[in-house]
Write a structure and sequence with these properties.
The protein contains 18 helices and no strands. By secondary structure, the chain is mainly α. The chain folds into three domains: 1-204, MFS general substrate transporter like domains (Growth Hormone, Chain: A); 205-248; 251-446, MFS general substrate transporter like domains (Growth Hormone, Chain: A). It is globular, with a radius of gyration of 22 Å.
């Protein structure tokens, strides 16, 4: 192995291309996710298989649970270039397979292949931000990635409907493919410059991510069954997932031990709370307040825009406030806004729900970016991708389990012939509790950067700039 010094090996032009490539990769995933959600009714009408409808989304998510930790370790042990290339290849193969799907079961498998690729790309992107950019630039790169979701969130549903109506739903999977070579050409030269460190994390057997993925699937699948089934499958799912959870995530994550484990625990609770509520805001607006799906979509767009605004705000103020203060303030804002949005069930003005949900996105952007920065700063040298993938994986699990537990409450209300508002109250209530838990965990985040002061940061940036210029000059000669 060689000394890491990764950022100094990347010339300014390569770093700019890398930034554009990472943003386009994020936009690629955002467009595909939003468009697929819009075309799925057309898919079911064409090839049937309604019983697999939900699994086309769950398979994608659970596949990312498997691939994120594997890709993170691989990036630290051998560099991010080849995992990134394989991830892109898997993603394209999944798109092609999905476009050719003769049945919904086939499509579910294709979506799992896409999820494997997407998880790899996410892990490489987060790890690369920690490896290739000095601390002073990381928050802005995270903000740029969050902005990549705004346009897809606004035009994605309409674009998906247009493609499905005029060209057929299969073309919605084919359309993103030409964008992939552009991403690879932009990002790969810089990724090749990122060398493994002398000390790398131990190899991770694929069995542990697979156990974590299977256990999570069993846990989530059983939540909407009868109570005794839900209890049995929950216990079984936890038992299967626990060995993988223990092996992959940092020690002390369950107890939210100070430092990186606290960031990992906070990531789980944050996405549990946000997505546990976000999944049911449209249902609340349509079923309780009688609004149209189009109008309910405004809330989904509002939270995406708010998230980007919050991430950008965090990038501008992160040097003035501690990680603890930012994460505490952001998560409390999320909790308050969930409560205000849910108040629409009790007759509060709908305008309050829409505005509150957008502001809740601001809190999410502030807190999410802060947590990821903590993971980057707390990572051991050479293990940046492993640390950031642990936080990303934890958040992904929270974002899957939150809606699952909320859905169990809605299902129970339906089984008891109770108003749907009772089930929704449960979903919003546990989301508020999870967001408040983040505020408590935030007290265990570090107050200052690890091994870095403002003077050291400035010196690091100056050194990187001088080395970048020297690299460019050498390349020119």
């Amino acid at each position: 192995m060689t000394d890491p010094a990764p950022a100094s090996a990347i010339a300014p032009a390569l770093r700019r291309a890398l930034t554009v490539g990472l943003v386009l990769a994020e936009a690629l995933g955002a467009i595909e996710m939003v468009v697929v959600a819009a075309i799925m009714p057309a898919v079911v009408t064409d090839i049937g298989g309604l019983e697999f409808y939900a699994w086309t989304f769950s398979a994608y998510m659970l596949a990312t649970v498997v691939s994120i930790p594997i890709a993170g370790r691989a990036a630290d042990r051998s560099g991010p270039a080849w995992p990134f290339t394989l991830g892109m290849a898997a993603y394209v193969a999944g798109l092609v397979a999905a476009a050719a799907s003769p049945t919904m079961l086939w499509l579910t498998a294709a979506r799992a292949l896409q999820g494997i690729g997407a998880g790899v790309i996410y892990a490489i992107a987060m790890g690369t931000i920690a490896k290739a950019y000095p601390e002073s630039r990381r928050a802005r790169i995270l903000a740029l990635l969050s902005f990549a979701w705004i346009v897809p969130g606004m035009v994605g549903p309409a674009l998906g409907a247009f493609i499905a109506t005029h060209f057929g739903w299969r073309w919605a999977f084919i359309a993103p493919i030409p964008m992939v070579p552009v991403v690879v050409v932009l990002a790969l030269p810089a990724l090749r410059r990122l060398r493994p460190a002398a000390d790398v994390p131990e190899a991770l057997s694929p069995i542990y991510p697979v156990l974590l993925g299977i256990g999570s699937a069993v846990f989530i699948a059983g939540l909407n069954g009868k109570w005794w089934i839900a209890i049995a499958t929950s216990i079984a799912g936890i038992a299967v997932a626990y060995p993988g959870f223990k092996k992959i995530l940092p020690a002390g994550s369950i107890a939210a031990r100070a430092g990186l484990p606290a960031a990992v625990a906070a990531a789980f609770m944050l996405e549990f709370g946000l997505f546990g509520a976000d999944s049911f805001v449209p249902l609340m607006l349509t079923e309780v307040r009688g609004r149209s799906l189009t109008e309910a979509g405004i809330a989904v767009t509002a939270v995406s825009v708010g998230w980007a605004a919050g991430s950008w705000t965090q990038a501008r103020i992160t040097d003035r406030y501690s990680h603890r203060r930012l994460a505490t303030a952001g998560s409390l804002l999320v909790a308050i806004c969930i409560a205000l949005t849910a108040s629409a069930m009790a007759g509060a003005p709908l305008a309050l729900a829409y505005v509150s949900w957008g502001i809740g996105g601001v809190g999410m952007g502030i807190t999410f970016s802060t947590i990821m920065l903590v993971a980057m700063e707390q990572a051991s040298p050479g293990a940046e991708a492993t640390a950031t993938s642990a936080a990303g994986l934890s958040g992904t699990l929270g974002g899957a389990i939150g809606p699952g537990l909320g859905g169990a409450g809605v299902t129970l209300a339906h089984a008891l012939d109770a108003p749907i508002s009772r089930g929704l109250a449960w979903a919003f209530g546990i989301s508020i509790a999870a967001s408040l838990a983040v505020a408590l965990i935030a007290g265990r985040l570090p107050t200052v950067r690890r091994d870095s002061s403002p003077d050291q940061e400035a010196a690091e940036s100056d050194t990187l700039l001088r080395r970048d210029v020297a690299t460019d000059v050498s390349a020119g000669n």
